[in-house]
Amino acid sequence: MRKIIKPCGLHCIKVKDLGVEIGGQVILKDINLHIHCGTLTAIIGKNGAGKSTLIKAMLNDVRHTGKIEFKDRENGHVQKLRIGYVPQNLNIEKHTPVSVYDMIASYQSNYPVFFRKSRRLYGEIKESLRVFEAEALIDKQVCNLSGGELQRVLLSMAVMDEPNLLLLDEPVSGIDQNGMELFYKRIEYLKEHFDLAIILISHDLGYVKKYADHVVLLDERILAQGSPGEVYSGEAFQKTFAETEVQI
Amino acid sequence: MEMFTVWWEYGFMRNAFFAILIITPLFALLGTMIVNNKMAFFSDALGHCALTGIAVGVVLGISDTSLSMVLFAVVFALLLNKISKKSAASTDTIISVFSSCSIAVGLAILSKGGNFSKYSGLLVGDILSITGREIFYLILIFAATLGFWFFAFNKLNAVSLNRTLAKSRGINVNLIENLFAVFLALIVMLSIKWVGILIINALLILPAASSRNIAVNMREYHFFSIVFSLFCGMLGLIISYFTNVATGPMIVILASVIYFCTYFYGKKIG
């Protein structure tokens, strides 16, 4: 993928009154967010607070009320929002005959992957993997990648279409401390070099404090949001993470 | 040499040969996705519901029970797909419940008045009884499936890897999954008479499972699956002719042997 211009700061994504109800149970309600390009928004909260559901609602994977708008701030034009997504995990077990090329080509193209490799597509995929130094992995089996390698591949795939918004769902599970630091470095690189906004679900409050521009504390609704400093010192945060404070 | 030509003299053997030439690659193709999606149980249940489909036809007084069988299987497949997605219980439990229930209803109806022996041939199948006209139908479904595979395989694979990710890429996940289930139902029903309820699933699963033992990407996966499937089909037919054993089981025995060979080979090369 070509490196693009610095984030312009002129686009914004607005989530208005988003709510999700599954089987009569309220999972999310009154979610209002305002996200600018070139920023990293971290979503934190207890298990079962609805973090993953929020991401799924933004992807239209679960039915929701309210709306999501993508606007040009200068002239107020509403545009179509392109969303890149990095899932928590893949349904893949040992010995699954899916190479990195097969996986990315399946999502990116209609040219059947069981057929002869398309040289053009192969080149494109390799090029996009280069952003995260993953081009050497292109012919490897996805199930044999380490956690960090898979992460790089998934990130490369997510930014292939030059999305306006990147959603990352708890991507740090299964990665060691060193890998985590690297991961957040990569996110920072993306943020600075691509014209996109990033929303990240994270459990690691330490890294969030260090890297996020905006923090949203979620539990069914938004308990608090603002800069990491603001949120972390608030009462809602103390209550939610009373037992896990050691992490910070 | 005569050994390889003598069976060719018989029309029923030639028909069986052509039928196998069509059925086995089809099964190999569909099998790749069945195995990757862990749908072995699903396709097994589909095979079992053939009896119920016939029973429904008998009850409704439809003269061509193949029609009711195919329709029933399509409805059954779509229903299974929907329910296993909605329900909180695990998929294999639900499939098992549906499968046993449907086969019990089928057996109950067909065995009424002690007439079941009329249908028991369906359990083992008989490829040698296939006619030219029926081969023609197989060719039609073969072409349709090939078209579907070219158009939809990437999407199927994308959905299989991660549903939400597929959705975020604008893939209509439900449509793709349902189409796959319908194609599976059609093919299983149209070939069940020749292959038999008891072993049809083995033919779907074994070639792909063997291929998976040694393949490292999608091209190899498909290639080996088709090669194994065709090879077992052809050889099984010829051996069954000379040994006077039913063709279906012979093909499955060969496919199993290949599975074990690839299993150990795959282990060896890691």
Entry keywords:
heterodimer; A: 248 residues; alpha/beta; Rossmann fold; 2 domains; six-stranded mixed sheet; 31% helix; B: 270 residues; mainly alpha; ABC transporter involved in vitamin B12 uptake, BtuC; globular
Greatest contact between two chains: A-B, 36 and 32 residues
Mean pLDDT of chain A: 83
**Helix segment count of chain A?**
8
Q: How far apart lie the N and C ends of chain B?
A: 40 Å
| Inertia-based shape of chain B | globular
Question: Number of folding domains of chain B?
Answer: 1
Residue-averaged pLDDT of chain B: 89
According to CATH, the homologous superfamily of the largest domain in chain A is: P-loop containing nucleotide triphosphate hydrolases
Number of distinct helices of chain B: 12
Order of helices and strands of chain A: EEEHEEHHHEHEHEEHH
The CATH class of the largest domain in chain A is Alpha Beta
| Main β sheet profile of chain B | none
Query: How many domains would you count in the coordinates of chain A?
Result: 2
What is the strand content of chain A?
25-35%
Structural class of chain B: mainly alpha
Q: Give the CATH topology of chain B.
A: ABC transporter involved in vitamin B12 uptake, BtuC
Strand order of the largest sheet of chain A: 5-6-7-3-8-9
Number of strands of chain A: 9
pLDDT < 50 runs, ≥5 residues of chain A = none
**Which structural class do the helices and strands of chain A define?**
alpha/beta
By CATH reckoning, the class of chain B would read Mainly Alpha
